[in-house]
Amino acid sequence: MNKKQTKHIESRLQEERDRAMRDLARYSEAFTGNQKDSDSAASYSFHMADQGTDAMEREKQFLFASKEGRYLWHVNEALRRLYETPDKFGICHECGNDVGYERLDALPHARLCIECKAKEEDGVE
């Protein structure tokens, strides 16, 4: 990758990091908001179905936040790789071939080329 492409990928990673941080903050607000609501007597539900729905919604929010947290970890790892070893960024960790600028533009934290990722997903060694 040339310097212009590297700068673009760095910018994409930072944008993705900012978006993930905003999403995590929104989930955090939802968690604390739900906790405050559940403390008030007015929001106490007397019906078991309502309690089940509330629990399911909290679980979904937790799962979304967990997924976003893992995504943020991958983005941060990609930024670390980019800053520590910029000459190796964009090289497949499995086969050593070029990951490809188009792939990195679409998925800036990608570590593997398309072929190696397909093998990984198929369970082929």
How would you explain this protein's 3D organization?
There is one protein chain. The protein is mainly α and 125 residues long. It has a single domain (3-122), classed as DksA, coiled-coil domain (Four Helix Bundle (Hemerythrin (Met), subunit A)). It has helices spanning 3-39, 48-84, 101-106, 114-122. Helix 1 (3-39) packs antiparallel against helix 2. The chain is elongated and about 60 Å long. The two termini are 28 Å apart. The model has no long low-confidence stretch (mean pLDDT 86).
* Alpha-beta content class: mainly alpha
The CATH architecture assignment turns out to be: Up-down Bundle
Number of domains: 1
CATH class: Mainly Alpha
* CATH superfamily heading: DksA, coiled-coil domain
Report how far the terminal alpha carbons are from each other.
28 Å
Q: What's the story with the biggest beta sheet?
A: none
Report the principal-axis shape. Answer: elongated
Any idea what the radius of gyration is? 20 Å
CATH topological fold name: Four Helix Bundle (Hemerythrin (Met), subunit A)
Overall mean pLDDT: 86
* Uncertain residue segments: none
Helix content: over 70%
In N-to-C order, the SSE pattern is HHHH
Number of strands: 0
Write the layout of secondary structure elements.
Layout: H1 3-39, H2 48-84, H3 101-106, H4 114-122
Helix pairs in contact: 1-2
In short:
With 125 residues, the protein is mainly alpha-helical.
Using brief descriptors, characterize the structure shown.
Four Helix Bundle (Hemerythrin (Met), subunit A), 125 residues, single chain
